[in-house]
């Protein structure tokens, strides 16, 4: 592999036909991994981190009664561990991204995954309620930053036109966690106790750190990187608008999925024993969306793919209001709703294009936005149900959030065209 001494090449990326190319500085050393490390092994290591984080984030949802019994607290109190983890993600993503911007990216990823693993091992030892929610908060801190930095590293290993595919491969670990990691950890937790689930997650995190050390190339920190330069990204209206699309438009999926179990049981009459089958359908949809999404972006422009996904989301979520009454139609609809995950890699690449040299912070903030979408969607869906509109009202809530995301999308497109004049 050729080396350069302090020189950088630049990649011109045109993210929208109406916008001027974004010139992204890329160190020559970042462009390709060492020839001794196959690129596919690098992506396995990066995706393994997503698998660990996805398993750790979602497994507690199926173990809340076990946690409540083990700590002698109520189920709603145990549920606070979910909220504090999400809060850790929202706070940790920008904080750690700025603090670690000068670290070589492989070392940064190892440190983030070590923090995640230690947080989960410590959660398994939590003696009580307050210690558990505190440790779940700490476990969530590296979540968004890991995905952001891993996406940047993955994108640096491929040609510019393959960036969406690279980000999709990194995110594939998260979607596979919903199919395999969460059921495995939940089953272990029910068999050996909920603490065993966190031990397993910590072990996967430790394995990830080792794989990243062995298989991910030693990508240096961006030339001239500094916390102030990263924070400069916050002055860009396009960064905020892109984050808004994710925080609002992606919330629709969570409005429906957060209440999928009671909706299927109360409206469609699905037996509780069959609910995992529907959850598996959702996971299959997510995996399919992660694989198909990059091809969709490759077949059209990035902005058209984002807008099209928001329309697709609004239609699917609105349809759930009607299909929820039929076990078969609901299953097809749930499978299709999982494909909405397509928007994740597309928004990640959009942020890379508009953030200039503040790549690390912008990439990490994307996952803060997604967790805000999770919280907002679940809360608004709950408001509609509590107000007496019924379980299926979450479909309308989700569709409205997707439409609100479309408004943000049109605002972003108008802003980009105005600045290009």
Structural commentary:
It is found in: Cell membrane. GO terms for molecular function: transmembrane transporter activity. With 421 residues, the protein is mostly helical. It folds into 2 domains: 36-225, MFS general substrate transporter like domains (Growth Hormone, Chain: A, Up-down Bundle), CATH 1.20.1250.20; 226-420, MFS general substrate transporter like domains (Growth Hormone, Chain: A, Up-down Bundle), CATH 1.20.1250.20. 75% of the residues lie in helices and 3% in strands. The protein contains 19 helices and 2 strands. The protein has a two-stranded antiparallel sheet with strand order 1-2. β1 and β2 (22-27) form a beta hairpin. α5 (105-124) packs antiparallel against α9, α15 packs antiparallel against α16 (327-338) and α15 (302-323) runs antiparallel to α17. The chain is globular, with a radius of gyration of 21 Å. The two termini are 41 Å apart. The model is unreliable at 1-35 (pLDDT under 50).
Low-confidence sequence ranges: 1-35
- Number of structurally distinct domains: 2
CATH H-level superfamily title of the largest domain: MFS general substrate transporter like domains
Compute the number of strand runs.
Answer: 2
CATH class of the largest domain: Mainly Alpha
The radius of gyration over CA amounts to 21 Å
Relative helix content:
over 70%
Mean pLDDT: 85
Beta-strand residue fraction: under 5%
């Amino acid at each position: 592999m050729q080396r350069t001494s302090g020189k950088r090449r630049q990649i011109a990326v045109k993210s929208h036909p109406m916008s001027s190319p974004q010139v992204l500085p890329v160190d020559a050393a970042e462009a390709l991994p060492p020839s001794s490390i196959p690129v596919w092994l690098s992506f396995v290591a990066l995706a393994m981190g997503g698998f660990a984080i996805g398993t750790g984030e979602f497994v507690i949802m199926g173990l809340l009664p076990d946690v409540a019994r083990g700590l002698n607290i109520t189920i709603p109190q145990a549920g606070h561990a979910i909220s504090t983890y999400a809060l850790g993600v929202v706070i940790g993503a920008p904080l750690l991204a700025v603090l670690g911007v000068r670290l070589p990216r492989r070392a940064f990823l190892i440190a983030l995954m070590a923090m995640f693993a230690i947080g989960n091992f410590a959660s398994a030892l939590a003696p009580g309620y307050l210690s558990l929610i505190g440790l779940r908060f700490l476990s969530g801190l590296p979540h968004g930053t890991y995905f952001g930095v891993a996406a940047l590293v993955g994108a640096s290993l491929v040609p510019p036109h393959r960036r969406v595919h690279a980000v999709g491969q990194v995110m594939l670990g998260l979607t596979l966690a919903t199919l395999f990691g969460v059921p495995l950890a939940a089953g272990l937790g029910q068999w050996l106790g909920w603490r065993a689930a966190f031990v397993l997650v910590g072990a996967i995190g430790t394995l990830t750190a080792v794989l990243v050390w062995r298989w991910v190339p030693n990508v240096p920190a961006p030339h001239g990187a500094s916390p102030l330069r990263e924070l400069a990204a916050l002055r860009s209206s396009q960064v905020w608008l892109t984050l808004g699309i994710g925080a609002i438009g992606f919330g629709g999926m969570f409005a429906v999925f957060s209440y999928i179990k009671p909706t299927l049981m109360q409206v469609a009459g699905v037996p509780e024993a069959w609910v995992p089958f529907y959850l598996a359908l959702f996971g299959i949809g997510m995996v399919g969306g992660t694989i198909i999404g990059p091809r969709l972006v490759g077949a059209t422009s990035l902005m058209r793919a984002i807008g099209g996904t928001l329309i697709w989301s609004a239609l699917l979520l609105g349809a759930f209001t009607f299909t929820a009454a039929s076990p078969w139609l609901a299953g097809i609809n749930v499978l299709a709703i999982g494909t909405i995950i397509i928007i994740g890699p597309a928004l990640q690449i959009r942020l890379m294009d508009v953030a200039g040299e503040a790549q690390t912070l912008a990439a990490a903030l994307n996952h803060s936005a997604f967790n805000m979408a999770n919280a907002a969607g679940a809360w608004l869906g709950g408001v509609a149900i509590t107000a007496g509109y019924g379980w299926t009202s979450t479909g309308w809530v989700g569709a409205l959030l997707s439409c609100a995301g479309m408004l943000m999308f049109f605002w972003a497109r108008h802003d980009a065209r105005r600045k290009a004049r």
